[in-house]
Write a structure and sequence with these properties.
By secondary structure, this protein is mostly beta strands. Helix content is 4%, strand content 48%. It has one helix at residues 72-77, and strands spanning 14-17, 20-21, 26-34, 37-41, 48-52, 56-64, 84-90, 98-105, 120-135. Strand 1 and strand 2 form a beta hairpin.
């Protein structure tokens, strides 16, 4: 069987928050679904009843903590906690690949890091509703 086509390495990603490009500050941007599944097995061999619930999403980002003007960390820290932010992201910013547009609830990033290390941040932000997918 031949290898599949369409596999990619995440690079040259698309990431905007409220219309500003922050892709050069982040090392990870992922839209993670949580889709509960319930199953009940009855007393017969093929007696399985399944239900898949609607997905909820979390936007997970990691990156550099840029605390000066133009930094995503500074921007997020300046918002009131719970502010809704508009996000557009795509793991591979190439024509024909997919991007997702969604509204997330802003979280406050950390400030500072251990001596001798780059200051970084890791955040998980809840997404309101479902993302909209489109071609880049």
């Amino acid at each position: 069987m031949p290898a599949p086509s369409g596999a990619f390495v995440v690079k040259n990603s698309l990431l905007t928050v409220d219309g500003t490009d922050y892709a050069n500050q982040c090392t990870k941007s992922a839209l993670v679904p949580d889709q509960p599944l319930q199953q009940v097995r009855t007393l017969v061999p093929d007696g399985v009843v399944s239900d898949v619930d609607s997905a909820t999403f979390t936007w997970v980002i990691s990156g550099l903590q840029i605390n000066k003007a133009g930094g995503l960390a500074r921007y997020l820290r300046g918002l009131t906690p719970g502010t809704q932010i508009s996000v557009v992201m795509g793991p591979n910013n190439v024509t024909g690949d997919q991007k997702a547009s969604f509204t997330a609830i802003a979280m406050i990033p950390p400030l500072g890091e251990e001596q001798g290390k780059f200051a970084t941040m890791d955040l998980s932000m809840p997404v309101l509703g479902s993302p909209t997918y489109a071609d880049i």
